[in-house]
Structures are given as structure tokens and as C-alpha cells.
Specification:
The protein is 49% helix and 2% strand. The protein contains 2 helices and 2 strands, in the order ααββ. α1 (4-33) packs antiparallel against α2 (48-100). It has helices spanning 4-33, 48-100, and strands at 146-147, 154-155. With 171 residues, the protein is mainly α. Strands 1-2 form a two-stranded antiparallel sheet.
Amino acid sequence: MRFSLFRVVSGVLQFFAWVWMILLLVAAIIIVAVPIPWESMNYYGMDYNLQMGLYIFGWARWGAFIGLIVGAVIGWAAMMAIAGMLRLLISIETNTYQSANRAPLAYSPPTYMTPPMPTPPVYAPPPIPPAAPTIGVVPLPVAPTFPCSNCGAELQPGDKFCQNCGGKTTT
């Protein structure tokens, strides 16, 4: 059997967790329940400082009682948690080992395909209207152009300066 040492350690930790809890609870009960010999003495006639020391010692007993209870619970919980984590790790490793040696599935799981997306409709461009008939249409006259006297670039009628060289036109 695999991991037998971890199983033994986990069991020993659980056993010691319970022993720890029982021993500390018994010690806590003994601290509070068993009287101290000088507690039964008559306080009358004692020195005041001795009386206060016994009173404070009574509070220390209750503090030790609470400390032992808290220590018992924390120690028990810690040891049980460590033992539980060991058991969990053993289970994870065992399951991983067993699943790696398992035979493959006899069937293949179904594959789910998404339906194909419909193609968007193709829109044709709007038809070009036919050209207007040219029968009886008179073309507009084109204004004559003339060259610049400085650079020779064409000037439009009404230009005062050449757009190319910036010189003043003569027409």
C-alpha cells in the first residue's frame, strides 16, 4: 500500500491531539479545583501584604486555567489540521495515480458544434441613372486664357496678379 508512512504519521498526530486535549483540560481543572494549603488559613491576624499576595495568586490561577483551556483547543486544532492535510494529500495522490492507470473511455464524448452564422445579404449599389439626352443642349462658352508676361503661366480673365510668380498682369 502506498504512503503507509504518511498514514501512520497522520494517525499518530490524531492520537496525540486527543491526548494533548485531555491532559491540558485535566491540568486546568486541577489548578482551579485543588485548594492551595495556605488558602484555608485564617486571614485574620495576617499581614496585609500577605493577604494581597494570596488574592493576586487566586487571579493567576484563573488566568492559568483559561490559558490551559485555550492552549488545549489551539493545540488540538493544529494537530488535527495537520493530520487532515496529510490525509488529503494522500487521497489526492492516490486518486491521481489511479486515474492515470485507468483505461481510456469506451466512447468519445460528443462534440457540440455551433450552427454556422448566416451570411449577410449582399446589397447591390444603386443603379446609375441614365445620362440626360444631349439633343438640343448648347455648351457654355469657355473663357479664353492668356499667358503671364513674366513667367508664361496661364492667367484667367480678371486676374490682376499671376498665381505662379506673383507679378502684375498687363491685361
